[in-house]
Amino acid sequence: MKIENAWMLLPGRKVGFGTVETDGDTISAVSLREPGESDRLVLPGLVNCHCHAPMTLLRGVGGGLPLKRWLEEAIFPVEAKMTPEDIYAGALWGAMEMLAGGTTTVADMYDFPADSERAFAEAGMRSNVCRVGLSFVPGRLADCISFTKGPGDPSSIRDICIHSEYLTDEPFCRDLAAANRELGRRLHVHVSETKREHEECIARHGKTPIAYLAETGLLDRGGYAAHCVWCTDDDFRIMAERDVALVHNPTSNMKLGSGFARIVRAMELGVNVALGTDGPASNDNLDMFEEMHLASLIHKGLANDPTALSAWDVIEMATKNGAKALGRGDVGEIAVGRKADFCVVGLDRLHLLPAHDLPNLVVHSMHSSDVVQTVVGGRTVYDASLGNEAFPACPISRAAAKNALLASAARLMGSNP
């Protein structure tokens, strides 16, 4: 594959003009020349580091409720009725949504993860998946270990996971950490999403959630922690020392009224900060361009400082920082030897002209709908020019995926959405 005469976002925070070539699944050449006219921008595939993709089935359910009530009243009762077929249908639709928006890798946390993993692989995405640790479910610890040991799809990494401190007990956490000494996987977890959660953990254990997880050994192999809204400076220091990335979820945190994570301070203390959409029930989309935009604006406004979080800071959060968070050092940048994961944006849109500053344009003007092509491992997995057949790598058509999604949603919710 060769994409010629295009603008590119390159390592070292550089903008270049020229050609990207692939050989098999790898970028084989990046050739630069004097800029000319082009209506295309190539940027690294976006990395969504915290998602619950099957929740496309619940898009927008429980809107207006705070987290605890949202979970207990709106989400958990419906999730209890979900089958593996539902999970597959929701994950496949989520994968299509993400690929159409330039996201090439996702870290997903949900039940029946083998079915999500299959959906992501069929659509053409890379994924980090996990069996969610919940200490009140009989046999779940053994299930978590067994799933993580399983071979999985070559495009997937199986990580360890607990949902959170508050849905597990200490023996569960310590036993999973002990098993992980052999498994050697990174931890995916919700941390300090709300003030109540953070303070109740301190009341139970005398420690913040991050300090507690470190004490149990679950952070010994690194990981990626979603939300971290109420984390302290000491928490950030632990995260930096233990190679635990902070996954910022600005849309979800605002919609659920959870607060604002102290991203600038975390970065000052050496924490790797990545971005995630969270699930479609608390977002309500899987648009990583929107997450970049909001992250930039929130922290400029909070700091009363327009220089807080530069456009490049946010782009790296959505690309190479996310790749690092997931233990995927071979993606996240357009460079020779990296996997050929990238997306192409059409610059001939009304809201993208004139293009004086491309990084600023990416963060403050672009939408996921501006993506015209997405490539994973050198293979086109989304091509907007193909219309209803825009996902050429997927054995399931968009129409069939839509029918399956709506059938599952209607059964779960009791009516056709």
Structure description:
The protein is an alpha/beta fold and 417 residues long. It folds into 2 domains: 2-44 and 341-389, Urease, subunit C, domain 1, CATH 2.30.40; 46-325, Metal-dependent hydrolases (TIM Barrel), CATH 3.20.20. It is 38% helix and 21% strand. It has 15 helices and 15 strands. The chain has an 8-stranded parallel β-sheet with strand order 5-6-7-8-9-10-11-12. A 7-stranded mixed β-sheet has the order 3-2-1-4-13-14-15, covered by helices on one side. Helix 7 runs parallel beside helix 8 and helix 11 packs across helix 12. The longest helix has 17 residues, at 84-100. The radius of gyration is 20 Å and the shape is globular. The model has no long low-confidence stretch (mean pLDDT 96).
Defining traits:
globular, TIM Barrel, alpha/beta, 417 residues, seven-stranded mixed sheet, Urease, subunit C, domain 1
Straight-line N-to-C gap: 40 Å
As a percent range, the share of helical residues equals 25-40%
The multimeric state of the shown protein is single chain
What low-confidence regions span 5 or more consecutive residues with pLDDT below 50?
Answer: none
- Based on the coordinates given, report the CATH architecture of the largest domain: Alpha-Beta Barrel
Task: Tell me the fraction of residues in β-strands, as a range.
Answer: 15-25%
Q: Cα-atom Rg, whole angstroms? A: 20 Å
Characterize the overall form: globular
Q: How many independent structural domains?
A: 2
Mean pLDDT: 96
CATH class of the largest domain: Alpha Beta
Output the strand order for the largest sheet: 5-6-7-8-9-10-11-12
The count of helical stretches stands at 15
**CATH homologous superfamily assignment of the largest domain:** Metal-dependent hydrolases
